[in-house]
Design a protein that fits this description.
The protein is mainly α. 75% of the residues lie in helices and 0% in strands. It contains five helices and no strands. The longest helix has 20 residues. It is globular, with a radius of gyration of 14 Å. It starts with a helix and ends in a 7-residue tail after the last helix. The model has no long low-confidence stretch (mean pLDDT 86).
Length: 102
């Protein structure tokens, strides 16, 4: 689990680097997605149940956006850039969910 947390941190830093060159706009939504995923995964590494639930909630929100938005350009703008990988990580969290504490 810590390796996935490191990968999330590195992806967050990369996203910050990409957004720093752009003016403030809808493109910065990717930064918010990655910050949410990173914070929730780091707390899930600490075996906090709310972190795992937040991560799965973010993934569920991305799934709803994927199914609701038909325009490919808008889908790329509003969804997380690592959407499919996050689905796999959510199942990984579900596998260990009984070990998590409040």
């Amino acid at each position: 689990m810590p390796y996935v947390g490191i990968a999330h941190l590195l992806w967050l830093v990369w996203t910050i680097g990409q957004c720093a060159r752009l003016p403030f706009g809808i493109e910065w939504l990717q930064l918010l997605w990655m910050a949410g995923y990173t914070i929730s995964w780091v707390t899930a590494c600490d075996l906090k149940k709310w972190g795992a639930l937040l991560y799965m909630g973010l993934t569920l929100t991305n799934t709803i956006l994927f199914l609701a938005i038909k325009n490919v350009y808008l889908r790329d703008m509003y969804m997380s850039s690592i959407f499919l990988i996050d689905g796999i990580f959510s199942f990984y969290l579900l596998f260990f969910f009984k070990r998590f504490t409040n």
